[in-house]
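Justification of resources, computational component.

The compute hours requested in this renewal are based largely on the per-chain cost of generating structure records like the one below. Each record pairs the submitted sequence with a full structure-token output. That output is archived, and it is also reused by downstream analysis tasks.
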Amino acid sequence: MDLTQLTIETLKKRVKIPVIMAPMFIISTPKTVLAACKEGIIGSFPLLNARTVNQLDEWLTDLNDEMKRIETEEGTVAPYAVNFIAHRAHNKRYEEDLKMIEKHQPPIVITSLGDPGPIKEIVSAYGGLVFSDVINTRFAKKAIEKGTDGLVLITNGAGGHGGTLNPFAFIQEVKQFWDGPVILGGAISTGSDVLATEVLGADFAYVGTRFIPAKEMGADEDYKQMIVDSTSQDVVYTPAISGIHANFLLPSLQKVGIDPNGLPDDGKADLGGNRKAWKDIWSAGQGVGSVQAIESMKDIVDQMHEQYEREVERVSQKRSSTSNV
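The structure output for this chain reads:
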């Protein structure tokens, strides 16, 4: 893929539907990324999902080789993204991961926490893009000051470390001081949701929970079934599991014997035994109620694309009938 011309506009031309599959801790893998990119959306995975730097080196080598093969044999393929934890206190492989990015040149790097400046310098040198996920306008302004290419607005209802702001309020406030690329995340599950993000002014939708039950996803089968069986009423927003406010599934808390009513309102709880956030206690966003089955990546993307196109047509017809009145 030629990165010298990579912009938000060229990204849109390479996808079937303006969706970035959000990077999900532990369960997103290169296999998931390839499946997503082949179906016409931007796939991503956290660099820290590779247990070691050597494994990450292998993953990125194989991923780039396979992307080149698909593009040569099958035509256009959506680019991929990696997630980089940009805070040294939360990423003990900070320097090593930076070197892997410089070596393998992923088209898009999504930064979380910390200063995106150092990664921006590396990625810009080879023509890639840096997007920074933020949960409020203060962090958005900081990311802009450090030179990020785009903002990923994580709003209320998002899986993982979701924010608390309503998407309507958040994106409109950001638009007052930022006219660059915006990616909007939080409870987005359908093609209609994706179109709605564009109406609000976003360039891409950031979708996580909808893809957890994908057959290609590296999630436990019980986790996938729990996603299918759950609704928004089963999502608990608490700092007690990971130490930072995040959305977790109530049934997964109950499964490991944790009483949600006994969780502290501030700080991390003693989970007991070897229980770990993300691995044993599973996350999901409020859009979980829209997920009805364990399906292939192709089926999920095709459904979202069909919903998106149908909604575009419906809106177009409604506007046309209104203008003729």
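The chain has a mean pLDDT of 94. Strands lie at 19-21, 43-46, 80-85, 108-112, 129-134, 150-154, 182-185, 204-207, 235-238, 246-249.
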